[in-house]
Amino acid sequence: MNVEIVKAQKHHLLEVLYIIRECSRQLINKGVKYWNNSLADYYEISADIAKGYVYLAKFNYVPVGTITLRPDEESQTLRIERLAIYPAFQKKGLAQRLLEYAKQYAASQNFSKIVGNIPVDDVGLIQLLEQNSFSRKEEQSMPLNEFKVVAYEFSR
Predict the structure, then answer these.
(1) pTM for this entry
(2) Who wins on pLDDT, 87 or 136?
(3) What's the N-to-C CA distance of the chain in angstroms?
């Protein structure tokens, strides 16, 4: 399996948006409410690409997955956001590869931990994080959006 993880460039914006849209459609159909109202828009993702926070997983040179790695220098924390794999390429170890990349990146930049908020009803992603040594921290309600998220953390 030829998988490459690269920093997204400005010309990758539509590919990133497409991957996130298709993944969100799949999750909405599975009843994961979080994806109904939390997706970043064109401008937010474009800004994150410009800052160098967005990465693509390419399978045989085709972009099929994405992850946003947002650094917080003050707290020495790396925040994972928008981990998404195009539905036809799920269950092939690509999300695992993106998480491994995040861990390597965090270590190379001396971040002490990796954090992220996961929808409580996204069972697949919760299992993936727990299999990769992320620990569950707390559950939070998002009152305006009527969903709950679980905070996860990985410490080196």
Answers:
(1) 0.87
(2) 87
(3) 28
